[in-house]
Design goal:
Layout lengths: L1 H19 L5 H11 L3 E4 L3 E2 L5 E4 L6 H11 L1 E3 L4 E9 L3 E6 L14 E4 L2 E4 L12 E6 L9 H7 L4 E2 L5 H7 L3 H8 L9 H8 L4 E7 L2 E8 L4 E9 L2 E10 L14
Parallel strand pairs: 3-9
Antiparallel strand pairs: 1-5, 1-10, 2-4, 5-6, 6-9, 7-8, 11-12, 12-13, 13-14
Length: about 260
């Protein structure tokens, strides 16, 4: 029995190691991108503006002295205690690249315009305990060999020496003030009519493509999610509001997605 238990234990360990030594699945990639994009965090380390991504190793380690040297040349992107937002996530072979506040060319973002409160009294989120970061930069979490299978929550924990995701974020405070249908749609990661651009970003992340055009004298912008073959989601804006959401399947069995007609 002991020998059998040892064999089973060794087999389980081998299976666990093999599970880690594989490429991310499509679903795992989507979960990472959706789970990190538009998330807020508080800087726990000085983050300089940098032309190249600031490197963080797979155990959360980083070269603080080197980051300070970069900061002396390009200035700060965020100081300890500043509130930052992940504005883009890119998955590469051996690293996960996180754009912070729009990258080096970025700066303060949409959340500075948000005000919350009750009745007629509101205050901007930026007036709360955490100062908004003055600029943007890029982080790259580098893994030996390849990016292992992991979830957004695991990556947030890995980044704890640099970024604190654990406090109740400005994103959560903002979402709680939205109408119930929009809150539910964001929770279910889908877009609905009446959303604005920031709410769609929270629900779906950044679109794969954007198309602008004028129809019947009105300006529209389509945000397109997904790629053929498979489900394609079109989120159509007129001005800053979603006026239509349409899902269809393209490239399956020779089918081609027909062009959208103007919303009525």
């Amino acid at each position: 029995m002991r020998r059998l238990a040892s064999i089973l234990s060794a087999a389980g360990l081998a299976a666990a190691l093999l599970a880690k030594d594989r490429d991310l699945t499509f679903e795992e990639r989507v979960e990472l991108i959706r789970g990190l994009t538009a998330e807020f965090a508080t800087a726990k380390a000085f983050l300089p503006r940098s032309k190249k991504p600031l490197l963080v190793d797979s155990k959360g380690g980083f070269d603080s002295k080197h980051w300070q040297e970069i900061g002396r040349e390009f200035g700060p992107a965020a100081r300890v205690g500043d509130l930052v937002q992940i504005t883009k996530v890119k998955l590469e072979d051996d690293r996960i690249v996180l754009e912070i506040n729009g990258g080096m060319k970025g700066g303060r973002k949409w959340y500075e315009r948000i005000q919350v409160g009750t009745g007629t009294r509101t205050v901007p989120i930026s007036s709360r305990n955490h100062t908004m970061a003055p600029s943007g930069t890029t982080l790259a979490v580098v893994f030996p060999g390849r990016v292992p299978p992991l979830k957004a929550a695991e990556l947030k924990k890995l980044l704890e020496p640099v970024l604190d995701f654990n406090l109740r974020s400005a994103t959560e405070q903002y979402v709680e003030k939205l109408p119930a249908p929009i809150q539910q749609a964001i929770k279910e990661q889908r877009a609905i009519e009446g959303m604005d651009r920031e709410q769609v970003l929270l629900a779906l992340g950044r679109p794969k493509h954007k198309v602008r055009e004028t129809r019947d004298g009105f300006d529209y912008e389509d945000w397109i999610y997904g790629e053929p073959p498979g489900k394609i989601t079109f989120v159509t804006f007129q001005g800053d509001k979603v006026v239509r959401v349409k899902e269809a399947y393209a490239g399956l069995g020779g089918a081609v997605m027909p062009p959208l007609k103007p919303p009525r």
